[in-house]
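Protein entry
_____________
===
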Amino acid sequence: MKTPRTLEKEFADPEEIWGFLDRLGAQARRLPDLNLRLEINGCRLKITLPDRDSPLLRLLEGFEAGSEPPARLFCDGGSRGNPGPGACGFAILDAEDKSLEEGGKFFEHCTNNYAEYMGLKEGVAAALRRGIEHLSIYMDSQLIVRQIKGEYKIKHKDLLPIYQAVKSDLAGLKSYQITYIPRSHNRLADSLVNQILDQNV
């Protein structure tokens, strides 16, 4: 059963509300369809989410404290043959939905899960190099998202070293959230993976 969540924020001027919503809308465009309710009363904004597990809640991290939503990392990876030639890709976007950095790597032989983890590792490392402290991470691999959250165990020993390396990198951030999204909402990172594979295979 879904549990609604309501967040409220006080602004100094009503015009600031629209600027905040514009920035929030730019970030939410890449997320699955969201059903939320907005209420504006003078300088106060109230947002009601239909589910406290909504991906949008990650974007509103620090909302009640008055901070802006964090930067976003979209990452992906894949292997043609599984195992076989593989690649990872990542894209970091700011609050205006502009790309801060894109990148990826090619691997001569790897599994899908290894490539997915490398996309996450490369993306987090890039965020740290840019001095980003708060990060919302989006992946289309439920397995890896749940492993990072501690909900699933690492069954394949060959993934344990990279899992530990990723967790170490994540510890360098002041805060982060990792969220599963459908592949259709992860097209930017997915396209980077396919570009790298097409160039090398």
